[in-house]
UniProtKB/TrEMBL annotation:
Gene for this chain: recG
Domain Helicase ATP-binding: 283-447
Gene3D superfamilies per UniProt: Nucleic acid-binding proteins, P-loop containing nucleotide triphosphate hydrolases
Name of the featured protein: ATP-dependent DNA helicase RecG
Catalysed transformations (reactions): ATP + H2O = ADP + phosphate + H(+); Couples ATP hydrolysis with the unwinding of duplex DNA by translocating in the 3'-5' direction
GO BP annotations listed: DNA recombination; DNA repair
Domain Helicase C-terminal stretches: 480-650
Annotated PROSITE patterns: HELICASE_ATP_BIND_1, HELICASE_CTER
Homology family: Belongs to the helicase family. RecG subfamily.
Annotated organism of origin: Spiribacter salilacus
Role played: Plays a critical role in recombination and DNA repair. Helps process Holliday junction intermediates to mature products by catalyzing branch migration. Has replication fork regression activity, unwinds stalled or blocked replication forks to make a HJ that can be resolved. Has a DNA unwinding activity characteristic of a DNA helicase with 3'-5' polarity.
This protein's UniProt keywords: ATP-binding, DNA damage, DNA recombination, DNA repair, DNA-binding, Helicase, Hydrolase, Isomerase, Nucleotide-binding
Length: 691
């Protein structure tokens, strides 16, 4: 294999691989000769020993030997050859739908065969259909087949074809460059690249096959390590490139505005808020563009920390933009920011679909001419029509699904010669393992403390056969002057169906609880209708708010102390925790009822019990990761970025600290290795081509 540079070596350069075969391999992500060795076997066929026929079980692929006891051609027009063999411990039937005369002459009574195939249940006894077979002499030496790899494949691609291609590639495996420094491999007890590849593709007859398949074998760990390292290097490089494009404005972080806000707040920042505020300040004060993720559980007080950052921008003569994923949330932020910033003389504006055309035009003008100092809006803020006068800071709220590409797009709003600082905030705590891989390009701050006086939400899970009881609880709570959310969402349902479900539920509530003032919010309502309902609920004019997950993020009504969630078993834990975070924001002891449809699956039961037992978003996210895997947790967008060929974040999580250290070392001391590893594992720019 020539050096892995650029596009690499075309597969068709290997003997026996034509364009069609190359195309099929491409479907497996194998595009270059260099990719082949990193396509690992899914399992191995054990041809190291001969199994007794009596030991065969359906579904087992094995090597057996026996003597033909019967052989005949049956069937009318579509003839087949059926033989039986025995080794004294049991009988096995062999079926050939295609056969030749010569074959028939060899498979006669008394012939001794060595066979390899998968045993399946047949009408009379276990069968093998089209096994591999050969005649053996009575004193034939034991088999030397070893463990034969079985590769993940795709339609029209046989194991034999993959194995041949692999064999050709493996002949050149020694020419693959070893990029992990000797000292690093020694410290982690990782084998060399060529030794690791040989071992996984052609294990010795005494290899621990289970360890290979489960990824415990040092050879697999070595490959996973290298892959994780390459991805981390790639993200770090992306970050470096990002920051090189243009400097950010160095902001005055010691001005008067932040201090003025703090004295006027009516509460003191928690220790955690203070720490994170300081971390942000340190970033903002330099021309290196900030790329920081703030993680904080629901209710940990991220908004005020963001507001403080926007004040540093304003103080220094720069604009700040605050984005949130839903209009509802932007409206709420707008109210908070207005409440905090307007008394300080700061011009805050809101940009959203509800504005009239004229008001919208005016808002755009105010932004472009610099009259607006802080603007709140959805991601529409980053449409081309929106022009900033001097954008110095972007805050992205509730957006852990905000990928590398979007982050890159944001910097362009700075006008080219300068780029804004970026602050991303999320209430879905990402377990460290994920954060380190998905967000290697971000610095991470954690607000790991709730403001004082919060009582944990008591959570129970009930089958929906007990709905009446729950309705009673709702009635009692409302009578006591408390407010209630009833969340009825359907997962994977359309907006329309979800809205219908919510409407039906609201109707039922109105009928069954005549004394309760019921409101309704769902995604199909007009913005004004949603706003009106939310506003009425906030003002205490409604007792019960029936809603879909539009209330998932951010909504803040301290008097609400009971939440009921229907179809809870269908939600992700992180999402349930988010929803639940809408209550427990005030003085009253709050509770959350998870209604589920019985019977519950084992997994669903496990998930719901995590929520009952914990109020710690980080713990919950970790369990969610274990139960559902990283793709689900991060959402589809990021899944692409976490599509590893070999590594598995759950299995290999313990490697990540070492990966982080190794990445730093490589960047400093082995720049060639950095580029080569990224080429090898992440592809020659392919992944980021679609930005
Ligand atoms: P989240 O982190 O979920 O976005 P918010 O920023 O919405 O949380 O804060 C939740 C509530 O807590 C708000 O009403 C906010 O004003 C209040 N809050 C924030 N920080 C503190 C604090 N240090 N002490 C008391 N209340 C606080
Ligand atoms: Mg928030």
């Amino acid at each position: 294999m020539p050096p892995e540079k650029g596009v690499g070596t075309a597969l068709t350069r290997l003997p026996g691989i034509g364009a069609r075969l190359a195309e099929k391999l491409g479907k497996l992500g194998i595009r270059r000769v260099e990719d082949l060795p990193f396509h690992l076997p899914a399992r191995y066929e054990d041809r190291t020993r001969v199994l007794r026929v009596g030991e065969l079980r359906p579904g087992v692929s094995a090597l057996v030997e026996g003597e033909v006891t019967a052989s005949e051609v049956t069937g009318g027009r579509r003839q087949r050859l059926v033989c039986r063999i025995s080794d004294g411990t049991g009988h096995l039937e062999l079926v050939f739908f295609h056969f030749y005369g010569a074959q028939r002459q060899k498979l006669v009574r008394g012939a001794r065969l060595r066979l390899f195939g998968e045993a399946r249940p047949g009408p009379v006894m276990l069968q093998m259909v089209h096994p591999e077979w050969s005649l053996v002499e009575p004193d034939a030496p034991p088999p030397t087949g070893g463990f034969i790899p079985v590769y993940p494949s795709t339609e029209g691609l046989t194991q034999l074809q993959i194995r041949r291609a692999m064999a050709a590639a493996l002949e050149q495996v020694d020419t693959l460059q070893e990029w992990l420094p000797e000292a690093l491999r020694a410290a982690l007890k990782l084998p060399s690249l060529s030794a690791a590849l040989r071992h996984v593709h052609a294990p010795e007859t005494d290899a621990d096959i289970a360890a290979l398949i489960e990824g415990r074998d040092p050879a697999v760990r070595r490959l996973a390590f290298e892959e994780l390292l390459a991805h981390r290097l790639s993200l770090l490089r992306l970050r470096a490139e990002h920051q090189r494009v243009a400097p950010a404005p160095a902001l005055n972080v010691e001005g008067e505005l932040p201090g003025a806000l703090l004295t006027q707040l009516g509460f003191a920042l928690t220790q955690a808020q203070q720490r994170v505020h300081a971390e942000i300040k340190a970033d903002l004060a330099t021309t290196e563009p900030m790329l920081r993720l703030v993680q904080g559980d629901v209710g940990s007080g991220k908004t005020v920390v963001a507001a403080l950052a926007t004040l540093s921008a304003v103080e220094s003569g720069w604009q700040a933009a605050v984005m949130a994923p839903t209009e509802l949330l932007t409206e709420q932020h707008y109210r908070s920011f207005m409440g905090w910033l307007e008394p300080l003389g700061v011009q805050v504006d809101w940009l959203g679909g509800r504005l009239s055309a004229a008001a919208h035009r005016q808002a755009l003008l105010n932004l472009a001419e610099g009259r607006t100092q802080v603007v709140i809006g959805t991601h529409a803020l980053f449409q081309e029509a929106v022009v900033f006068h001097r954008l110095g800071l972007v805050v992205v709220d509730e957006q852990h699904r905000f990928g590398v590409h979007q982050r890159l797009a944001l910097r362009d709003k700075g006008g080219g010669h300068i780029q804004p600082h970026q602050l991303v905030m999320t209430a879905t705590p990402i377990p460290r393992t994920l954060a380190m891989t998905a967000y290697a390009d971000l610095d991470v701050s954690v607000i790991d403390e709730l403001p004082p006086g919060r009582t944990p939400v008591q959570t129970v899970a009930l089958p929906d056969s007990r709905r009446d009881e729950v309705m009673d609880r709702v009635r009692v709570a409302c009578k006591e002057g408390r407010q209630v959310y009833w969340v009825c969402a359907l997962i994977e349902a359309s907006d329309v169906l979800e809205a219908e479900a919510a409407e039906a539920t609201a109707e039922r509530m109105r009928t069954h609880l005549p004394d309760v003032r019921v409101g309704l919010v769902h995604g199909r309502l007009k913005a004004e209708e949603k706003e009106a309902a939310m506003h009425a609920f906030e003002q205490g004019e409604l007792d019960l708010l029936v809603a879909t997950t539009v209330i998932e993020v951010g909504v803040n009504v301290p008097n609400a102390s009971l939440m009921v969630i229907e179809n809870a078993e269908r939600f992700g834990l992180a999402q349930l925790h988010q929803l639940r975070g809408r209550v427990g924001r005030g003085e009253a002891v709050s509770s959350c009822v998870l209604l589920y449809k019985s019977p519950l699956s084992q997994t669903a039961r496990a998930r719901l019990s995590v929520l009952r037992e914990s109020n710690d978003g980080f713990r919950i996210a970790r369990r969610d990761l274990e139960i559902r895997g990283p793709g689900e947790l991060l959402g589809t967008r990021q899944t692409g970025e976490l599509n590893y060929r070999i590594a598995d974040l759950l299995r290999d999580g313990d490697l990540l600290d070492h990966v982080q250290q190794a990445a730093a070392t490589l960047l400093q001391q082995y720049p060639d290795a950095t580029q080569a590893l990224i080429d090898r594992w992440v592809g020659a720019g392919e992944r980021y081509a679609q930005v």
